[in-house]
Amino acid sequence: MTGSRARARTSRWTGALLLIGLWLPRVAPAQTAAAGPTGGELPAIAVDELTAGSRGWGLSVFRGGEPERFEVEILGVLRDVQPGTSYVLGRLTGQGLEKTGVIAGMSGSPVYVGERLVGAVAFAWPFAHEAIAGITPIGAMRAIADAAPWKRPLGQPRSSLADISARSFPADALGAAVAALAGPAGPGGRPALLWGATGFADSTVATLGRWLPSLAAAGVAGRGGGEPNELAAGAAVAQVWIDGDLRLAATGTVTERSGDRVLAFGHPVTGQGDVAMPMAAAEVITVLSSAASSFKLANTGAVVGAFERDHPAGALGRIDATAPTLPLAVRVAGPVPHRFALRLARVPALLPTLAAIGTLGALDVAAPVAGLEGLDLRLALDLGGDGRLELVQSFDGEGAGIQAVLFLLATVDFLTRTDLAAVDLRGVEVDIVPFAEPRAETLVGLHAERAQVEPGDTLELLLDVKPWRGEAMRRRLPVTLPPDLPAGRYTLLVGDGASADAARLAIEPVEPVTFAQALALLRSLGSAKQLVVLGVLSGRGLATGGEVLPRLPASMRSIWGVSGTRNATPLRLAVAQFERTAQEIPLAGLLRIDLEVRRQEPVKGEPTRPITAGASTAGAKKEGR
Question: Exposure pattern of 302-341 as b/e (b: 16+ CB <10 Å)?
Answer without folding.
Answer: bbbbbbbbbbbbbbbbbbebebebbebbbbbeeeeebebe
